[in-house]
């Protein structure tokens, strides 16, 4: 199928009765937001009869039960049943069947977000004649998703990586394809905006524009940035501590926002007496303008109250980030958080298997705790993380730091 052959595309959405989907809401959402792509929803009872989906057998069964499907340009069928090869979807003729099998183990997002993700993924593939797919999970819409858990980050990011955007943009030449690409960008933007707030895409979200009041820098020399991270983020920590400050200047972020930055970590503190976390809080966190927290596969070591010995926070990094999110403190630093995009790969015979799983579950629980307190972002590698932090810092400085007069 080639995008140059598009007319006003006529697409039917077909839902297996094992999915609890807000059909009316989806219908309204699509009609309100799209211009070139035309969707209709099949509102009658429909069921895929086989326990597993196979190609072409299941596709032929659907067509035999619903012969009128041939009048549509495309039919997107969504089911909770699994493919025999465990793929997300296959296409046969004008019918594509998308599988939501084991959805709850892959993501916390509702089916509606998944429907929009699958639609955007299909349209993006349709616009690109190269058949390129990322074999690793990157968050790009062209990820193949060998590891199906990557779909969670795919919905949160809903983006093109720079290489894919350049490749696809260069192939979109005719007017019809350009209009479809506009619709695609609308869907991806709406999916990202809602998913990063852990919300159903059909709900209207009133995002808090100014949760943080504008404030002055705590230092006359510039803006203090603290890098907070547990022990499994050595590569990420190294690149941020060594390169963030210089790249902020060299790439002209400093010129755009009007401030230089000074990047700090516990490594800059002198050896001294005192409970380490209390020293970090006093010497770094209280004096910082931003706390940039990086997590990979674990939270880190819990902190404690030195007087009572009772637990104080899930880890030092958590304590540092939570101080940045504490709105009761008038001059708290501003928090930014980034989480590695994929789960740890664990060998079944690893002696640390239980510990790795426990650490991962603690991290997932923490993400749930903060999901309505801030926007956090996934990253795939240290270099990508550096670029994300640079751009986010510039924007947050512009939004929340008073300019010098």
Overview of the molecule:
The protein is α/β, with parallel strands linked by helices and 405 residues long. It has 2 domains: 3-195, Collagenase (Catalytic Domain) (3-Layer(aba) Sandwich); 223-400, Rossmann fold. 39% of the residues lie in helices and 16% in strands. The chain is built from 13 helices and 14 strands. It has helices at 23-33, 57-65, 103-106, 111-127, 151-157, 162-171, 175-195, 234-250, 253-257, 276-285, 316-324, 353-370, 382-400; strands at 9-15, 37-41, 52-53, 74-79, 82-83, 89-92, 95-99, 223-228, 261-264, 290-295, 303-304, 311-313, 334-340, 376-379. The protein has a 5-stranded mixed β-sheet. A 5-stranded parallel β-sheet has the order 9-8-10-13-14, with helices on both faces. Strands 3-5 form a two-stranded parallel ribbon. Strand 11 (303-304) and strand 12 form a beta hairpin. Helix 8 crosses helix 13 (382-400). The longest helix is centred in the middle third of the chain and has 21 residues, at 175-195. It is globular and about 80 Å long. The termini are far apart. Residues 1-6 and 206-210 have low confidence and may be disordered.
